[in-house]
Amino acid sequence: MLLELPSVRQEAWRWSDTSALPGHAQATPTGEIPAALPWLIGDGPRLLFVDGVFDAVRSAPGDIAVGAVSADAGDHALGRLAGKTGWRLRLGRAHAAPGLVQIVHITTGGADHLAAEIELGEDAQASVVETFIGDGWTNRLTAIRLAKSARLMLARRLLGASGYVSVTDRAEIGEGASLTIASLAAGDCDSRLDGHITLAGEGAFAEADGALLARGAARHDANLVLRHAAPNGTSRQTWRSVADDRATCAVAARVEVARAAQKTDGEQSLKGLLLARTATINAKPELEIFADDVKCAHGATVGELDRGALYYFATRGVPPGEARALLTQAFVADAIDRIGDEAARDAFRANVAEWFSKAPPKTEKG
Amino acid sequence: MLQLNNLHAAVDGKAILNGLTLSVNAGEVHAIMGPNGAGKSTLAYVLGGRPGYEVLAGSATLDGHDLLALEPHERAAAGLFLGFQYPVEIPGVSNVQFLRTAVNAQRRGRGEAEMSAGDFLKAAKAQGEALGFSMDMLKRPVNVGFSGGEKKRNEMVQMALIGPRLAILDETDSGLDIDALRVVGDGITRIMRRPDKSVVIITHYQRLLDIVRPDFVHVLSAGRIVRSGSAELAHELEREGYVGVAQEERAA
Fold it and tell me: How many other CB atoms are found less than 10 A from the CB of residue A4?
C-alpha cells in the first residue's frame, strides 16, 4: 500500500510526527494476544479486534454488526486510510444498548485500519468504551449520527506500550441529542486524535474531553472542531495535558458558530502541566463566531505543579514522587470525571494511577 | 528530643537565624514568642526543610537524627510535624485522600502495614468529630474554601492521625476566634500532652498558652533566644511588650 501522509507544513499537522508510520506499515504483526484483556466489568456487548481483524471467538457482539460500514472521512488524510469495513452499532428509535459496549483493539506490531459507524435513532441511547493496546500503528475512523434526542457516551483509552494510535471522529448531532467523547492517553504510544463534530439540530449538546499523559519522547496531538450550525446548542471541551521528560502534548480546539446558531453556549478549557522544563505543551484555542447572540468562554494555561502543595505533602511524610503523582491525577481529573458511566470512569482513573506507578524511576530534585 | 545548637540560617541571602540554641525534652511543651521579623516562622521552616531556607551553620537533631541531612518527607517520617500558619489549599485532592496517603506513607516508612480504607475512615471520623471537623469536610478538597478556623482544625486532625513525636506549630492561633482557639488548644493538649511527645508552639500572643499551658517560654529576637522562663514569662510579655522583656535590640 502506498501511504499518503500529511505534511507538517499543513497547519493542522504542524505538531504531529507521522514519520514512524511507513515503518509500522511495513512491519509484520506477531498476532500474539495477551493473556489478560482489558475488559471492564459488565455484560454488555464485547468486540475484540486483533490487528484490525474481528476475533469472533473472544467476542460477544450483541447488537453490533461487523462488516461494511458507511463512514466518510472527508479530506482527513489518515481517516481516508481507514477503509469501509469495521463495526457498526445501529439502534432504532428509543432503543438502548444492553449495557456498556466494549471494544478492544490490539495491534501487534504492524499497521491496521478500521472504520466504524454509530447511528442512534430518535431517543436511542448507548455507552461505548474503546481500549487500544499493543504496539504498531492503529488507525481508526468513526462516523457518528445521532437522531433527535439520542444520547451517546463514547470513552476511549489509549494504553499502547509503543507505536501510534490515530483516531478520527466525524459526528453529526441532531435536535436535542447529546454526544460526549472522552479520551485518555495513558500508555507510551504516540497519538493523533481528530474530532469533527457538528451540532446540526437545535438544542444539541456536544462534549469533547481528554486527558493526555506523555513522557519519554511521546507525542500526543489532539485536534477538534466543534461546529454549531443550529441555535441553542451547548458545547463543552475540557482538555488536560501532562508532559514529562522530552514529551510533547498539543491540543488545538476550535469552536465555530454559524450565523444561524444564535444562543450558542460554548465553553472550552485547555490546561497543560509541565513535569519537566524539557517537555513541551501546545494549546491552541480558537473561536470563530458569526452569530451575534452567543456565550463562548475559553481559557488556556500551561504551568507546573504547585511547589507549596508539594511541600505540604512532604511535611506530612509523603515522598515527592507520590505527591507529584497525586497532584497530577487531581489535575487530569477534571477531564475524566465527566465520564458518565461509573465503571468506565473508575477504570480510566485507575489507568491514570497506573501510568504513574509504571513510570521509570527518576531522581527527585529538592 | 529536639536539640538545636547555634543554628544560623538565611532566606534569599539574608541572615534570619543567628545562633539559635534550644533543647526540648520528651513530655515538654515549649512556646517561642517574639516580635515580627524575629525569625519565628523561619525557625519552623528551617526545621521542616522548606526549599529556599538555607542553613549556614549549627545543628538540629530529633531523637538523634540529623534533621538537616534529611529530605522534608524524611523529617516527617522521623516524627516531625509542622503546623502551618497558612495551610495550603490543594484543589482536586480530598482531605481523606491526602491524609490516608500521608498516614500510609509514614507507616510504610516504619515498616508497618498500610491502613485499610475502612479502618482509616473510622479513625478519621473519630478524630474529626473530636475537633468539630465533619465527615463532609473530610471529603472536601484539602483546605479549599475553608475558613481560617477550619484550616487550623484540619491541621489538628492531620496531627492526630499522623501521630508525630514532635509538633512545631507555627502561629496555629492566628485567625482563630475564641471558640476555635479553645477547640484547637484542647486538641493540642489531648493529642500531644504525653510523656513521649513534645510541642513547640510559635505564637505572638499568650491567649493560646492559657489553654495549652507551656512548661517553658522563650523569647526570640533577631534570630536568637534572648530569654527563657516559665509560663509566667508569657504574661510578663503581654504586660510589658517585647522590647522591655527582651532587653535586646529588636529585629529590624
Answer: 9
Q: Do A309 and B90 touch (CB under 8 A)?
A: yes
DSSP H helices, A122-169, are none
**Cα B213 from Cα B211, distance rounded (Å):** 6
**Chain B hits for A316, Cβ within 8 Å:** 76, 98-99, 102, 105, 158, 162
Secondary structure (H, E, C), B9-59: EEECCEEEEEEEEEEECCCCEEEEECCCCCCHHHHHHHHHCCCCEEEEEEE
Report the predicted TM-score, pTM, of the whole model to 2 decimal places.
0.87
DSSP letter, residue A28: P
Confidence of residue A15 (pLDDT cuts 50, 70, 90): confident
CB of B146 within 8 Å of any CB in chain A?
no
Residue A309 has its nearest CB partner, among B72, B88, B101, at: B88
Size of interface A-B (CB pairs under 8 A): 74
Tens of pLDDT along A195-239? 999 999 999 999 999 999 999 999 999 999 999 999 999 999 999
Backbone dihedral angles phi then psi of residue B11, each to the nearest 5 degrees: -125, 130
Residues in B touching A317 (Cβ below 8 Å) = 73, 76-77, 102, 105-106, 109, 162
**Candidates B73, B84, B97; nearest CB to A314:** B73
A330 in contact with B, Cβ within 8 Å? yes
d(CA B99, CA B156): 12
Q: Are A235 and A207 in contact (CB under 8 A)?
A: yes
- Residues in chain B within 8 Å Cβ distance of A333: 92
* Rounded CA separation B30/B126 (Å): 28
Q: pLDDT, tens digit, for every residue of B35-76? A: 888 999 999 999 999 999 999 999 999 999 999 999 999 999
Which of A203, A293, A184 lies closest to A249 in space, CA to CA? A184
Q: B90 forms bridges with which residues in the sheet?
A: B142
How far apart are alpha carbons A213 and A184 in whole angstroms?
8
* CA gap A212, A189 in Å, rounded: 11
